[in-house]
Specification:
This protein has 263 residues and is an alpha+beta fold. Helices cover 27% and strands 24% of the residues.
C-alpha cells in the first residue's frame, strides 16, 4: 500500500508539489462530501493555486458549509478551515473553525467533527428568509463586515501580544493584524505581506510600507503596497477573494505587520 500523501510537506516554490497537493486535497474533499451526505450538484469544488510562495487553497462549498484546505500561516494544525454559510455565494459565513491538515486522511472523522460544530439543514427545514442557496444571507454578511469596520478596528491602539509568522519566522504581527486575519479569513493577506519581504526587492527596500486591499463587487481585488509618501511600489491583481470588507489597510515596519491605529 502506498504511503499516504504528505499534506504537511511544504509546496512553496515547487509547482509540481503544489499540483499534487491540490490533486490529493481535492480528492479527499470529495470523500468528505460523500461522508457528509452531499450529492453531486449539491456542492462546488474549487482550486486556487495562489502565488509561488504559498500553497493556495482547495475549497468545498455547499449550500450550508464552507471548507477550505491550505498550508496555513497559522501552522499545519489549522490547515483546514470550516464554517457555516448561507448558500454558495456566501463567502463570509459564520464563525471560523479549524482542524489539522492530517484530517484530510480521515474524511469520516472530519465529517463528524464538522457536524459537532455545524448542523446540516434537515430535509424539511424552511428556506432562511435572509438568503437562499444562491444568495448570501445579508444579515450574516453585514455582521462580518461590521467586525472589520473602522469603528471596530479603532479598538486596537496598541498590541499586548506579538505573533510570529508561521513560515517567514523573522516577521511578527500584532493583535490587530491577527484580528483582521481571524475575522476576515485573511491569513493569506499576512502571507502576501510576509513573502513580499523576501521576493519583491522594491518592497523590501522600503522601511515603512502601507498595504492596501481593495475588493470589488465581483470579488476580484487589488493588493497594493505604498511607501510612506503614497507611491505604489508593488501591486497585485487577485482573481478572487472572500474577504468580507470592501477594503483594509495594514502597515509594515520593523519586521512587524500591524493596523494603522496600533502605530
Amino acid at each position: 500500500m502506498p504511503a499516504p500523501f504528505g499534506f504537511k510537506q511544504s509546496v512553496a516554490y515547487d509547482d509540481d508539489a503544489k499540483r499534487r497537493f491540490h490533486h490529493h486535497a481535492g480528492a479527499q474533499l470529495l470523500k468528505l462530501a460523500a461522508a457528509l451526505g452531499l450529492n453531486p450538484g449539491e456542492f462546488d469544488l474549487r482550486s486556487n493555486a495562489g502565488g509561488i510562495a504559498v500553497s493556495g487553497e482547495i475549497t468545498l462549498h455547499a449550500d450550508w458549509l464552507y471548507v477550505q484546505a491550505e498550508q496555513s500561516a497559522m501552522g499545519f494544525d489549522s490547515g483546514i478551515l470550516f464554517r457555516s454559510c448561507a448558500g454558495r455565494r456566501d463567502y463570509t459565513g459564520g464563525r471560523n473553525n479549524f482542524a489539522s491538515l492530517d484530517m484530510l486522511h480521515e474524511p469520516e472523522e472530519l465529517a463528524t467533527l464538522i457536524r459537532r460544530h455545524i448542523r446540516p439543514p434537515a430535509a424539511d427545514d424552511a428556506p432562511a428568509s435572509s438568503g437562499t442557496a444562491d444568495t448570501p444571507a445579508p444579515a450574516a454578511a453585514a455582521a462580518r463586515r461590521d467586525k472589520l469596520s473602522r469603528a471596530a478596528l479603532a479598538q486596537f491602539n496598541g498590541s499586548e501580544h506579538w505573533y510570529r509568522h508561521g513560515l517567514v519566522r523573522g516577521i511578527l504581527y500584532t493583535d490587530g493584524a491577527k484580528y483582521v486575519a481571524d475575522e476576515g479569513g485573511a491569513y493569506w493577506l499576512l502571507d502576501e505581506i510576509a513573502f513580499a519581504q523576501r521576493l519583491q526587492k522594491a518592497v523590501a527596500a522600503e522601511e515603512f510600507q502601507a498595504w492596501k486591499l481593495a475588493v470589488k463587487p465581483d470579488r476580484t481585488a487589488t493588493l497594493a503596497c505604498e511607501d510612506g509618501n503614497g507611491r505604489t511600489v508593488f501591486e497585485k491583481a487577485l482573481e478572487y477573494t472572500d474577504f468580507p470588507a470592501d477594503s483594509i489597510e495594514l502597515w509594515f515596519e520593523n519586521n512587524t505587520i500591524y493596523l494603522p491605529s496600533e502605530h
